[in-house]
Amino acid sequence: MKWTRRDVLKGLGGIPILGAVWWAGASNAVTKRRKRNEILQQLNIQPTLLPSIPEIGGEPIRVGIIGFGIRGEQLCRALGFATKEWKEAMKLEAQEDSKHTALKDFMNQDKLNVRLAGVCDIFDVRAENALTSFNTTDNKIKRYKTHQEMIRSGEIDAVVIATPDHWHAPMAIDALENGVNVYIEKPMTHTVEETYRLKQAAINSKGVLQVGHQHRQTMSFRTAQDIIEKGVIGHVSLIQTNTNRNDDNGAWNYEIHDKASPQTIDWDLFLGSAPKIPFNKNHFFRWRKWWAYGSGLSGDLLTHDYDRLNCVLRMGIPGSVIASGGIYTHNDGRNVPDVLQANMEFPNFSTGSSQADGKEKGMTFVYSATLGNGFSRPTILMGHDGTMELGNRLTIWPDGSSTKYAEMLESEKMNPGTPIYQYDPGANSPDAVSSATSQYFADKGLMWTYIDGKRVDSTFLHMREWLSVIRNGGTVSCGIQEGFEEAIAAHMAGLSWKLGKRIEWDIENDKIKPIEGIDFDQVLLSDPFAISEELEADIISQV
Q1: Residue 358: how many other CB atoms lie within 10 Å
Q2: Which residues contact 518 (CB under 8 A, 6 or more apart)?
Q3: Pick from 300, 353, 388, 542: CA 20 to 30 A from residue 151's CA?
Q4: What is the mean pLDDT of each run of 10 residues along the chain (543 residues)?
Q5: Same domain? 241 vs 207
């Protein structure tokens, strides 16, 4: 995976105007070339490559996977380990659709210097599947009954945590306190208190923690950083980002395995700190639908969009959050909302201004989600001088009232209805996805990026970065500080939805501002409908 800027530009050669300016009806006319070059010179945007990563040399890093479900299998494939069933399924997909290249991409993926040494899953079928698929003469894999057994075995250098949310922090803290490296899926924590404990554990540990926001490897987001830093779109006052899903998988109604039973699943271990209830297949396979194990739209999907923008803008924790929504499209017993609107306020944030000093300051981040409609709504950053649409590619339109581009707009070298910049490194790469949910992630730039015009799995790049830092030192792109900001922002949104109140951040004391009589963690873990009844009873008693 060695490349240069020249290689990338060669790979982008087929893109209209070299992956930069797209001019409607562009031709070789001298006047249009002159306009284009003048705009390019003023914008001075450079498609931003990933930094070079030192080789992962020495003895193979011994990795243990904790949780071998949907995401666990995906993470293992990024490490270079795919189950026999998946390979066969992807082979059949490719036979039916020549654009479906998942198996080919996996087979061509660079080999990482790792040994998948252990698996820990409380569902026997999943654990046995990992053992059957990955146990070879070159790679011996062992099953561990608990994460503690794996972490303390002395046979594991790093763990990948892909469990329900309520187990993320306890497992990560345990690993870090024992010097074991951690790759943890989002949201990083399930409660506010855990967020602080995990941060301290990471600071004190020799282990390297990487949070699984793989979009930080996507070239369009890195290029967007350059655009913001150069003030191309001016002061950003409003961000709109969205979740649009309308299928069972997207609504977390995952398939229930026919071999699931109290005999094949360690139910007590699954529950952990969650309320004790009888064995329930629905809760086990579809845990994202309940606050006891998951974090709802705020923790599961808002976190993607928050961190996508945080890596571009570096805006940090919002000053306040207010959220609304409800269960409007999937009344199936869940207690997390399937429609959510969250407004995050950043009153002191600025991306710089082309106007008079002090005129512009502050930003609102709007997250709008529904699991009942799949109409694609893009991520939009609205600045005084331009508007950016951001996903796996990015496009910029000038604003008709821009100060920065007033002269060019007046001379009609720019037109508010015509993009002045478009970066699309995958324009010549055929992409095929297997489901509406996959398309949702692909459109957001969460599945792959492009290197030298070729599609590369972003998760592979993110895990490769983590492994390289473990072996060679350095800093990961999504470590404990980024994870802390993501977790707090998500918890603020969840609390606001449950309480129906504005939740504020105390920047001086580095904590969520207390609300008298309310235990935030108790609220996060509780059934929201029970909370509503308690609040209503409290109001009545006060009256």
Answers
A1: 7
A2: 499
A3: 300
A4: 39 34 40 70 74 87 97 96 94 90 90 96 97 90 97 98 98 98 97 98 98 90 91 97 94 97 98 97 98 97 96 97 97 97 97 93 98 95 97 90 94 89 64 48 57 77 96 96 98 98 97 97 90 44 41
A5: no
Provide the pLDDT for residue 533.
45
The 3-state DSSP class for residue 436 equals: helix
Contacts of 371 (CB under 8 A, 6+ apart): 243, 245, 246, 250, 251, 297, 329, 330, 338, 339
Residue 184 and residue 90 share a domain = yes
Q: Are residues 298 and 324 in the same domain?
A: yes
What pLDDT is attached to residue 446? 54
Instruction: Give the CA-trace dihedral at 100, 103, 104, 109, to 10 degrees.
Output: 130
> What angle do the packed helices 192-204 and 168-177 form, to 10 degrees?
20
Q: What is the DSSP letter of 4?
A: -
For residue 406, the tally of other CB atoms under 10 A from its CB is 15
Average pLDDT value for the chain: 88
Number of alpha carbons in the 13 Å side-chain half-sphere of residue 507: 9
72 with 173, same domain: the answer is: yes
What pTM was estimated for this model as a whole?
0.89
Which residues have a Cβ under 8 Å from the Cβ of 257 and sit 6 or more positions away?
Answer: 123, 125, 285
Compute the distance between CA of residue 512 and CA of residue 533 in angstroms, rounded to an integer.
24
What is the C-alpha to C-alpha distance for residues 49 and 3, in angstroms, rounded to an integer? 9
Kindly state whether residues 370 and 469 are assigned to the same domain: no
Domain count, the chain: 3
Compute the distance between CA of residue 267 and CA of residue 261 in angstroms, rounded to an integer: 9
Residue 303 lies in a domain: yes
- Residues 377, 467 share a domain: no
Contacts for 417-420: CB closer than 8 Å, 24+ residues apart? 418/23, 418/24, 419/21, 419/22, 419/395, 420/21, 420/39, 420/43, 420/386, 420/396
Q: What count of residues does the chain have? A: 543
What pLDDT sits at residue 53? 82
Question: Residue 105 belongs to a domain with what CATH number?
Answer: 3.40.50.720
- The neighbour count for residue 124, using CB atoms within 10 Å, is 16
